[in-house]
Amino acid sequence: MVLLAHEKKKWQIREESMAPTRLLVFILGAAMAPLLFVPADAAGQVGVDYGRVANDLPDPATVAQLLKQSGITTVRIYDADEVVLRSLANTGIKVTVMVPNEILADVAGNPSHALDWVRSKVAAFLPATQINGVAVGNEVFKSRPDLNPQLVPAMANVQAALAQLGLAGAVKVTTPIAFDAVVNSFPPSDGRFQDDIAQSVMTPLLGFLQRTGSHLTLNIYPFFAYAAPSSTINLDYALGNPNPGVTDPNTKLVYPTLLDAQLDAAYYATEKLGFSAVQWRTSLTESGWPSGGRWGNSLEAGGVLRSGAASIANAQAYNNNLINRILSGKTGTPRHPDADLDVYIFALFNENLKGSGPDDIERHFGLFYPNMQKVYEFDFHGGAPPPPPPAPPGAESWCVASAAAGDDRLQAALDYACSHGADCSGIQPGAVCFEPNTLLAHASYAVNSYYQNMGRASGTCDFSGAAHVVFQEPDEICDPNASWCVANAAVGDDRLQAALDYACGHGADCSPIQPGGKCFEPNTMVAHASYAVNSYYQRNHRASGTCDFSGAASVVFKAPKIGNCVLPWKAWIQETTSMSEGSYAAI
C-alpha cells in the first residue's frame, strides 16, 4: 500500500522564462577562463577548476595525488602559484594559468613586462609541468570594464612573448567571457553581444582567436538562470535530465537543455559579428551547480534562491550529466551539431572563505569537501557514477534521492520506501517535513528513513539508481525531531521588522531579545528576527507554513547559533534552554 500519494507536477516550460532580466554568472573568487588545448579531432575533455579561497584545504602535493586518483587530467588555477605548479610537475596533468586583472594594464602597455611574466610563470615550469594555456584577465567585461581597451593588446603581448620563447604552438592565449556579455539570450537565435563591447572589443578579440588558433572560452552557469526566484524554468531542463525541450520560435530548433540554449545564444552572437563558431574549439571554462546554501549575491531579488535550487541531488545531477555528455562525444548544439566543446567543472573543493557566510552558495560548489571526501558521487571516466564505497566502521551515513533519476523513478522509490518500513508520516500534508513540498525532498526523506530503519545495510540505498549514500549530513533531509526557523538577511530590514513584529505579536516569547535579555546581543535586526520567528515556529509545533513570513524566513535542519545565543528547538516545552550550550555553525 502506498502511504503517500504525491501529485506529480506538470511543468510548464515558458519560452520567455529563458531570459530572466539578470542572467548573471558568478565571479567565484578570482575566476578566470582556462583553456584545454588538444588536437582539433580530439574528443571533448573534462577538467576541474582548482580554486583556493579557503584556509582548510589540503596542501597542493596532496591535491595533485587526489586529482590523479580521481581520473582528473586537466585543471585550471586562478594564478600562477609556484608551489601549485611544482606540485603538478611530472603528473601528466595539464594546467592553465592566469594573468590577473591587477597587472593586465601593465602587460598591455609594456611588451617586456609580458615577456618577464611568461618567462617566470610559464617557461620556468615547462616541460615538467604541462602548462598548456594562459588566460589573460578575469571576465574583464564584467568585473573590470575599465580595462576593456587594454584586453586585446595584453593578449597580443602575451602571445608575442610565447612566440619569442618558442612556446606559441604549445601554449595558447585567450580570455574568459562571462555569459552576461550576451544579451537577448532567448530565443538563442536573438543572441548578441552587449552594444558597448560588440564592435570595440569582441570583434578584435574574435579576430585574435581566429588568427592564433586559440579557443573561445565561456563561463556559463544554468543554475543562476534557474535559481532566480522569478524563474519558471523547468528543473529537468536546467539539470540536463530528460524533458520535452524548448523550441526557438525563429529557427524551430528544439533545445534539450538550458546549457544548449545558452551556448547557441553565444554562438549566434559571434555570427552577428561575422565569425563562425566552428572556426575554433570552445571551452566551457566554468560551469557547475552548488550543493547547498540559501542565497547568493549574483541573484536577483536580494540574492534569495528559488526554493530547493541548491542541493546535493541537483549538483550531482547537473555535473554528472555534463561530464557524461562531453565524454560520450555529445559536444554539439542544435545550431552547431559538430561543434567541439571542452568543459571545466567548478569547482574542486568547497571553499570556506568565499562569499559572506556559511549559507552563501559560493561556498558550496565543490566536488570535494576540504577533507577530500566527495560531496556526492561522480566519475571522470564517463558512464554512471560508481556505487559509493562502504562507510568506515562506525561512520554515520545518509541516503539521498538523486534528481537525475527523474520524477517517475523518484516516485517509485518513494512509494517503495513508504510501503516497506519507512516512516513517511513526517511528509504528510501539515506535518513537520511536508515542506518543501517537492517530489525530490519527499523522496529523500522516505528513502533515508528506509535506509536508516534497515540499519544502513549494503544495498538498501539504491532504489534502481534513484538514490545514493552520502557521508556528510545532507541539508536537504528534514529531521522531524529537530528544525528551526531563521530569518533571511537578504530580504532587508523592513521585511525582517515586519516578521519580528508579527511573531512577537502572535505568541512568540520575545523577552530574551529585550535589552538585558539573554539574547539581546548581538543587537542586530536579523538576529532578533531569527529569535522571534523561531519562537513563533516552535510554539506552533513547527507546523507547515509557520516559518514563511512572506519569504523573510526559512526552515533549517541544523541548529543555528546567533552570537552566543542558541535557538531552542522545543520552545513550547523549554524556551529558556541555556543559551551557551552547543557548538553550531554561526548564522
Contiguous uncertain segments of 5+ residues: 1-42, 384-392, 569-587
Overall number of strands:
19
Number of helices: 16
Helix content: 25-40%
The main pleated sheet reads as: 9 strands, parallel
Cα-atom radius of gyration: 25 Å
**Overall mean confidence score, pLDDT:** 82
By secondary-structure content and strand pairing, the structural class works out as alpha/beta
Rounded to the nearest angstrom, the distance between the terminal CA atoms is 42 Å
Instruction: Please indicate the percent range of residues in DSSP E strands (runs of 2 or more).
Output: 5-15%
Overall outline: globular
| Spatial order of the strands forming the largest sheet | 5-4-3-2-1-13-12-9-6
Structure description:
With 587 residues, the protein is an alpha/beta fold. It is built from 16 helices and 19 strands. It has helices at 60-69, 82-87, 104-109, 111-121, 140-143, 148-164, 195-212, 222-227, 235-239, 258-271, 312-327, 406-418, 439-453, 493-505, 525-539, 571-574; strands at 46-50, 74-77, 94-99, 130-136, 172-174, 177-178, 182-183, 192-193, 216-219, 246-247, 254-255, 282-287, 341-345, 398-401, 467-470, 484-487, 553-556, 561-562, 565-566. The strands form 6 sheets. The protein has a 9-stranded parallel β-sheet with strand order 5-4-3-2-1-13-12-9-6. Helix 6 packs parallel to helix 7 (195-212). The longest helix is centred in the middle third of the chain and has 18 residues, at 195-212. The protein is globular and about 75 Å long. The protein starts with 45 loop residues before the first strand and ends in a 13-residue tail after the last helix. Mean pLDDT is 82; it is low at 1-42, 384-392 and 569-587.
